[in-house]
TrEMBL record:
It comes from the Eukaryota. InterPro entries: Exostosin, Exostosin_GT47. GO terms for molecular function: glycosyltransferase activity. This is Exostosin GT47 domain-containing protein.
Length: 655
């Protein structure tokens, strides 16, 4: 009996020990679990109402660190990092859509310094080296989509900064390819339709969103820099077949003359909100408008070539008033890399250069918002897509939501937004998704957009068509500037690029290998020689064909001016850059898309005198489309800011 009593007591003691041990292990597991699971507590998933932790929006702070010691320097984005944040991010080949997705891979190749090995550039890159990059714009494509990682470089005032250990960003597949996010990108129609009136058949593939997975939750985030807000709809979707809008001709067309009439009407009758209370700044703008409308006549101004402008006298007076009057307040809100971190190189360089130069301007920027006429929201539409787009989600709602929350924050924190409904606020964005991302919540702001489609939300007279500039070298944005004189331009017309959208296949099918004077090609092969061949063709051509891609805008327009080639713009509903200021007929040819079959006939019929006038106009207007490290009078920074100022002058309503 005593034996059984002792055995029972011993078992109770051992049970207590095991219970204590198991309890200690359970407590330790719960305490240390957040360190083991990047998405939070796994125990919550055992509850029937628990939210799928993969899509928990509250814990998307990137924690990944990479010890990669030799970054792949293909297609590197040059990023200006003027603060302590140093991003050595990795991404897929830098791509840009010519609309919803005209792809470009800006590939870097071996430089002259001999610091490359096996096709990979070393981390030490001297920006002074004459490094060659394949794509002169988004359409001269290197179709090597197998490269997984490409470094996002830092350039601080022209100097590259790299780190061995940084967070890793993976460029989303849809963003890489630049394709419309609601479509399957695996099967695009490659053949041109028989006629422009024929719609291209929809893609045959079905879009499936991944049900799980950490593998599809998009890029990791720079630790402590920002928190992503991912798509709530990133679950399983049914297969969808839908016609891609960019693969079909527009249902309505606004002619160039109708655009001019619309601009004049919108300047006469503003639809902007009347300020809730009066301001001394408003009175200064109203006075500026009176002075612009009563500007003294300008005759033979040595700094301005009159035929380039709609009204050179009013432009000169408006520009002078901008220089002496305009003050801009830049919001400090918003975290890098989406805000305050400009990209200085590549296809999105326009928004980056403007941001950099605006932030560094002592002439226009004020620290006291009460002294400001305009308020700048400094975000990068490229970095917004790069950091927040959820790969394979086919959904950009979270990008728009991020900007919505930002605008709501500044509206709640400051009184200035609510005074005008945002009418005296402006943004500068070059990504093709920017019109969608800024819809509704930023609807009354002045938007400077590269994707300037008059039928898709762009408001003539308020918004600004931003020139899309391709910058190859952040330290020297003027590299390769200029071209042959008119007498040495022996090519009638030139085009080379990707077959994106419905229009370019028609152009190539109509003219490729059909006429020795019409140098019309598809994508050019990869390599330095091909890139230089592309540039030399533009420098030697009389006319450079600038057809639309998936969207209306293309960097070729400014590129043609850069190489002193007369641009031939073929893009229905496209509003040419800085439209409110320039007379585009003085230095370009604008043709409707239906005239492609008659392209040579139209160009040959232009009299020699008319061509010489156009060529002179291109050379004269060139200075207005150039970026400089230190802004110059009438350069692209000042011209962009002036158009924003000018449209505000004509949109303001007195209290």
């Amino acid at each position: 009996m005593e034996f059984y009593y002792r055995l029972h007591k011993f078992c109770q003691l051992e049970s207590r020990k095991w219970l204590i041990f198991v309890g200690a292990v359970a407590i330790a597991h719960l305490l240390f679990q957040p360190l083991l699971f990047p998405y939070g507590y796994a125990v919550r998933t055992l509850l029937p109402t628990a939210r799928d932790p993969v899509f928990d929006e509250s814990r998307m702070i990137g924690t990944g660190q990479s010890s990669i010691k030799s970054g792949v320097a293909r297609n590197a984005l040059a990023v200006d990092a003027s603060s302590e944040l140093k991003i050595g991010l990795f991404a897929q080949n830098e791509t840009k859509s010519d609309g919803a997705g005209d792809v470009s891979h800006v590939s870097e190749v071996k430089g002259h310094g001999g610091d490359t090995e096996n096709g990979l550039a070393s981390e030490e890159v001297n920006l002074d080296d004459d490094t060659a990059e394949l794509a002169v714009d988004r359409d001269v494509v290197d179709d090597d989509d197998d490269e997984d990682d490409v470094r996002l470089e830092n350039i601080v005032d022209g100097n590259e900064v790299t780190q061995e250990k940084d967070s890793v960003l993976e460029l989303p597949s849809e963003a890489k390819k630049g394709l419309p996010p609601v479509q399957d990108v695996t099967s695009k129609t490659s053949e041109a339709p028989a006629a422009l009136s024929q719609a291209v058949p929809p893609t045959t593939g079905a879009s499936h969103l991944k049900e799980s997975g950490a593998s599809s939750i998009g890029p990791a985030v720079v630790k402590g820099a920002f928190t992503t807000s991912r798509n709530n709809s990133a679950g399983v979707s049914n297969p969808v077949k839908k016609k891609i809008k960019a693969e079909m001709p527009p249902t309505s067309i606004t002619t160039f003359d109708e655009m001019n009439q619309l601009l004049a009407r919108n300047h006469r009758s503003s639809r902007a909100m009347r300020p809730r209370w009066s301001s001394e700044r408003d009175r200064e703008i109203l006075d500026a408008r009176w002075q612009i409308e009563n500007a003294p006549a300008v005759v033979n101004d040595p700094d301005l070539y009159a035929p380039l402008f709609r009204n050179v006298s009013q432009f000169k007076r408006s520009y002078e008033l901008m220089e002496h009057t305009l003050k801009v307040y830049i919001y400090k809100d918003g975290k890098k890399p989406i805000f305050h971190l400009p990209i200085m190189k590549g296809l999105y360089a326009s928004e980056g250069w403007f941001m950099k130069l605006m932030q560094g301007s002592k002439q226009f920027v004020v620290k006291d918002p009460r002294k400001a006429h305009l308020f700048y929201m400094p975000f990068s539409s490229r970095m917004l897509e790069y950091t927040l787009y959820v790969r394979n989600s086919h959904n950009r709602t979270n990008l728009r939501q991020h900007l919505k929350e930002y605008s709501e924050k500044i509206a709640a924190k400051y009184p200035f937004w609510n005074r005008t409904g945002g009418a005296d606020h402006f943004l500068v964005a070059c990504h093709d998704w920017a019109p969608y991302e800024t819809r509704h919540h930023m609807e009354h702001c002045i938007k400077a957009l590269c994707n300037a489609d008059v039928t898709v939300g762009f408001k003539l007279g308020r918004d600004v068509s931003l020139p899309e500039t391709y910058v190859r070298a952040a330290r020297n944005p003027l590299r390769d500037l200029g071209g042959k004189p008119p007498s040495q331009r022996n090519i009638l017309a030139f085009y080379a690029g990707g077959m994106h959208g419905y229009l370019r296949p028609i152009l190539v099918k109509q003219w490729k290998d059909k006429d020795p004077n019409m140098k019309i090609f598809g994508p050019m092969p990869a390599g330095v020689a091909s890139k230089m061949n592309y540039i030399q063709h533009m420098k030697r051509s009389k006319y450079c064909i600038c057809p639309k891609g998936y969207e209306v805008n293309s960097p070729r327009v400014v590129e043609a001016i850069f190489y002193e080639c007369v641009p031939v713009i073929i893009s229905d509903n496209f509003i040419p850059p800085l439209f409110e200021v320039f007379n585009w007929k003085a230095f370009s040819i604008i043709l409707p898309e239906k005239d492609i079959p008659n392209l040579k006939e139209i160009l040959v019929s232009i009299p020699a005198k008319r061509y010489m006038d156009l060529q002179l106009g291109v050379r004269k207007v060139q200075r207005h489309f150039l970026w400089h490290g230190r802004p110059l009078k009438y350069d692209l920074f000042h011209m962009t800011l002036h158009s924003i100022w000018y449209n505000r002058v004509y949109q303001i309503k007195p209290r």
